[in-house]
Amino acid sequence: MSESSGEAGRSDTARLPAEGEGVAALQKATKSEDGSEEEEDASEGVQKGTTPQAVDISPSGTVPRSADASPPGSAQRGGRESPAGGDGGGPGVPTGGGCCPGPSAHTAGNATWSRVCEALDALESRQAAARKELQVVREAVARSQDEAKAAEARWGAELAGLRTFKAASTVELQRQNRALAGRAARATRQSTRAASCCARACAVARRARAKEEDAVGQLRGIEALLEVRDSQSVRLQKRLSELERCLEGKSRTLTATRALALRQEALLDEVVALVHSG
């Protein structure tokens, strides 16, 4: 905002000489249009001993005016005009020498000077308005500068607060980073211990699995032995039953043989008895 106000002020200050140049161009144009009348006025001023003063338009806006720069109609002549038929010549001829321009020349000169005066008045009014605008712009620039300074002060305070907050945040972040680093180290150690324990547990599980496989193999061997022994016991039971049947047959045969032997002994006893008796 301050930059735009400064640029507006600079443009207004730069516009004042431009307006002065415009007025000079206007005067030059009016002089070129009425060159003959001004030449006559200048020649009249030279004859009367007066030199027309150039109009100076200063940057401050003041336009000096002198008695010599007054319109030709109101200018003091170098000599008095003689009345009609007086000394010095005919009517309308000044006593100071020279020829007097006609009424048309005076009217044109008055119109030219009136236009110049109107242009100067308009220029003065424009310069006054421009000065007022420049003053307003300067006040706006001053206000904007004050506001910018206040805003800069606020921003400086906010920046200081932000820097303080950043420093505190940095300290807190470093503390949290250290705490997180400690936690990470403890977690790493715990994970290492857990990994070693897991490795030991895996080794124990592998050993237990190997032992289990060995036990299963031994159990299968025992089961095979038991099956063999069961088959042997079955065969032995069959042999035992066969032997029992054979033993029963032999016992029956022995019993029959014993009975036969007893009968033979009885018969022998009877024979012996018969022999002794006979």
Automatic annotation (TrEMBL):
Parts forming coiled coils: 120-154
Listed Gly residues bias regions: 85-98
Protein name: Uncharacterized protein
Organism: Pyrodinium bahamense
Region ranges (Disordered): 1-98
Keywords annotated in UniProt: Coiled coil
Biased composition (Polar residues): 48-63
